[in-house]
Amino acid sequence: MSFWQEFNERLRAFGLAIGVHILMGALVVVGTMNWEPFRKPQNKGLTIEAVIVDTGEIKRQRDAAQQAVERENKKRQRAEELEKQKKREQEQEKLRKQRELDAAEKRKKELEAQRKRDAQDRLQKLRMERERKMEDERRKQQEELDKVRAQREAAEKQRRIEQERLKQLEARKEKDRLEQQRLQQQAAAQRQADAEAREFRAGQMATKSDNYQAAIQSMVTQNWLRPPTAQPGLRCKLKIVQIPGGEVISAAIAGTCNGDQATRRSIIAAVERGGSLPYRGFEDVFEREIDFIFIYDGD
User: Fold this and answer.
1) pLDDT digits (tens, 9 = 90+) for 202-257
2) What residues contact residue 35 under an 8 Å CB cut-off, 6+ apart?
3) pTM as predicted
4) Which CATH number is 210-296 given?
5) Under 8 Å between Cβ of 285 and 239
6) What is the 3-state secondary structure (H, E, C) of 67-78?
């Protein structure tokens, strides 16, 4: 709680106490306004006037005011205690977070130190392994050198034998190189031939597929009974299901078609009227389901 809040609370309690005392004084004055203790008695008969001041009510009001002041004081004390408790909790939370940060930083430093130690250990092991391998290599080279020197010193004829053997090895190496070159050239030629064969077959398949579509168009056109509403420029895409041999199982408009309903029905009827699509000679491009575009550009 700030200084000004505490000052306002105390000022309000002080004002409340002053108000209670003023109220009590006013009640006493009002209750005694008609009381004349020194008025001379008058003989107007046996008449008694009395003003009763209810001191119990004044006491209850004074107690109520006092209790209100006490409640305000308790409320203010409670607010101060809560504020102190909040500050203590904030300090504890701050200390806890600081301890966590310190622990994390300590752990981080420990891990970094351990990482450096591990890296140094690995580097030391690699260095030792490399030195060992180099030493083994030097030893092997020295042994080979001693062996060759001993062979050279053994006899002059052995030198000639070695020279002949070296020539044979070179000749064999050259022969192997030429054979490898020949095999590579042969493989390249075979790959070229295979590629040309695939390209030729792809061209044949494309041509055969175009011929297949043309044969279907011719067969459907021959069986088509053109309705009066069919106009040149007609394009209708059909989905045709067939079985090996070309027998048509079903046919339906399955895409864009710029003909009316009568034209569409007549095209489907033309496919079904034929009974079978061209098959012989087109086995390589046969498909169970085909998309066929019927075209009519006029007679």
Assistant:
1) 444 458 888 999 999 999 999 999 999 999 999 999 999 999 999 999 999 998 99
2) 51
3) 0.33
4) 3.30.1150.10
5) no
6) HHHHHHHHHHHH
